[in-house]
């Protein structure tokens, strides 16, 4: 495994969660409700104090990680699978896990990775939470971003994609995510439905998925993540390794490698 | 490709300073525009130009490298499905991107080969492994304008489709603002003393695509360079 340098200042991230800086939807609502800018400022300071006092520390014991003091419906940040290991590969779908180096005789390179719940296998994921959409960016999965569209419905005609089409809404402190339109290896709809319930408990994010296959078989798959503001997420460019190891038609060659990059071979 | 995780200690004095800055930042960002949603380049162009319509001012080394790139299209890293870099990744016709505006991050989810551009809000540049194709971007709001400062680029990408090169010394400063509800303007200043004889600025316009969904795009599959799943 390669060394990773700490990216996020622990204290910066902790304090930024105590004082939500940029959340357009929330801020607009607060400005509309408060009596002028003075009232807004007072509200902000009171909110920050309330968050600092009210949020209990919980989740997996980790004395080096400060408590996540953002609200229970604020799941933005860097998360790492905490227990249970990476979710198993989707049955009948493309393999999960790190993009494999091509094996002589195969043409499998940088293929899509399908995650039926959560994101990121064993590596860090970044969740960015906007007012209209939540994205989960997985460093392990070639920086693929799951997109969860908030407050809407599935399109009438869903175009199948490896990670389907996800919509989400909040039920109290639980983000309920509904996903359909998973594509199989040939691009056809697998007719699989995944319903996730994602809840934050202090420094832990729990994702419980109910998976219904085309046959009607139902199973559950649970994943927990630990909040890790000390980590960083980096570019994971599978294609760089692709042109180094790829096999096309049984020959170790890549006609698409520009001459100036011969040194990478 | 796997990575290790490492931790770094923090100090209380830093905590207090950041708390003060955090409050100041929160107040400054209290009423920022909503630039979220799907966007696409309004007028694609193969070649970046200055705002005045001129070609970028190149050094001798920049001219030489540019000529080499123009003479051999196969040198284009995008042909190998490598990341286009900034701003080229945002200006590919038919490949929109979606802005996701969070609390501590702003994401640009690029359709082209499912690239995510992560912009860290209200914090300075920090140490990272780098350099990377999309560099390291930090940003803050000044009124209605998002100022995005990016360093840490590698030198493997082209700035535009014509082969305009850059080095690892590239530093870009973008001023991103809503010109109207459906128009996003990105004024990009380029500074790279190895390639450009002076800083120069380009202006890019994007149009909103209401209701558009960003597709999962896989360049290797789309271009037929791979992949066939073998079981």
Notes on the structure:
Chain A is α+β, with helices and mostly antiparallel strands and 265 residues long. Chain A has one domain (10-239). Chain A has four helices and nine strands; from the N terminus they run αααβββββββββα. Chain A has a nine-stranded mixed β-barrel with strand order 1-2-3-4-5-6-7-8-9. The two termini of chain A are 21 Å apart. Chain B has 231 residues and is α+β, with helices and mostly antiparallel strands. Chain B has one domain (36-222): Calycin beta-barrel core domain (Lipocalin). In chain B, a hairpin with a 3-residue loop joins strand 2 and strand 3 (105-110). At the A-B interface, helix 1, helix 2, helix 3, strand 2 and strand 3 of A face helix 1, strand 2, strand 3, strand 4 and helix 3 of B.
Supply database-style keywords.
heterodimer; A: 265 residues; alpha+beta; 4 helices; B: 231 residues; Lipocalin; 9-stranded mixed β-barrel; 28% strand; globular; disordered N terminus
């Amino acid at each position: 495994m390669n060394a990773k340098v700490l990216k996020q200042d622990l204290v910066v991230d902790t304090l930024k969660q105590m004082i939500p800086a940029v959340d357009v939807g929330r801020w607009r609502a607060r400005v509309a409700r408060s009596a002028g800018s003075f009232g807004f400022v007072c509200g902000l300071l009171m909110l920050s104090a309330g968050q600092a006092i009210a949020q209990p520390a919980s989740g997996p014991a980790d004395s080096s990680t400060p408590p996540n003091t953002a609200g229970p419906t604020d799941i933005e940040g860097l998360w790492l699978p905490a227990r249970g290991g990476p979710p198993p590969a989707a049955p009948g779908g493309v393999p999960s896990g790190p993009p494999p180096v091509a094996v002589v005789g195969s043409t499998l390179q940088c293929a899509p990775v399908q995650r039926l719940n959560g994101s990121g296998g064993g590596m860090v994921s970044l969740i960015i939470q906007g007012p209209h959409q939540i994205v989960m960016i997985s460093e392990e999965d070639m920086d693929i971003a799951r997109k969860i569209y908030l407050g809407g419905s599935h399109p009438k005609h869903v175009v199948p994609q490896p990670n389907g089409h996800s919509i989400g809404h909040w039920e109290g402190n639980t983000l309920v995510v509904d996903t359909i339109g998973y594509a199989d290896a040939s691009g056809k709809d697998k007719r699989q439905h995944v319903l996730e319930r994602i809840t934050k408990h202090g420094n832990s994010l729990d994702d419980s998925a109910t998976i219904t296959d085309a046959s009607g078989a139902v199973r559950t798959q649970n994943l927990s993540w630990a909040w890790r503001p000390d980590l960083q997420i980096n570019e994971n460019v599978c294609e760089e390794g692709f042109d180094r190891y790829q096999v096309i038609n049984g020959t170790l060659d890549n006609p698409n490698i520009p001459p100036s990059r011969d040194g990478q071979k | 490709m796997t990575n290790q995780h490492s931790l770094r200690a923090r100090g209380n004095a830093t905590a207090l300073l950041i708390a003060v800055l955090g409050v100041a930042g929160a107040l400054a960002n209290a009423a920022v525009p909503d630039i979220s949603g799907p966007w696409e380049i309004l007028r694609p162009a193969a070649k970046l130009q200055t705002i005045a319509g001129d070609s970028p001012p190149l050094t001798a080394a920049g001219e030489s490298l540019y000529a080499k790139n123009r003479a051999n299209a196969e040198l284009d890293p995008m042909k190998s499905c490598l990341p286009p870099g900034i701003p080229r990744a945002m200006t590919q016709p038919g490949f929109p991107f979606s802005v996701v505006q969070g609390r501590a991050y702003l994401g640009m989810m690029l359709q082209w080969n499912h690239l995510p551009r992560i912009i860290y809000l209200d914090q300075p540049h920090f140490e990272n492994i780098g350099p990377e194709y999309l560099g390291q971007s930090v940003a803050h709001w000044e009124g209605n304008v998002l100022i995005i400062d990016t360093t840490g680029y590698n030198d493997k990408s082209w700035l535009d489709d014509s082969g305009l090169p850059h080095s690892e010394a590239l530093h870009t400063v973008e001023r991103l603002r809503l010109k109207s509800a459906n128009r996003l303007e990105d004024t990009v200043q380029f500074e790279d003393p190895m390639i450009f004889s002076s800083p120069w600025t380009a202006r890019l316009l994007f149009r909103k695509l209401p209701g558009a969904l960003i597709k999962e795009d896989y360049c290797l599959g789309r271009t037929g360079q791979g992949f066939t799943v073998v079981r």
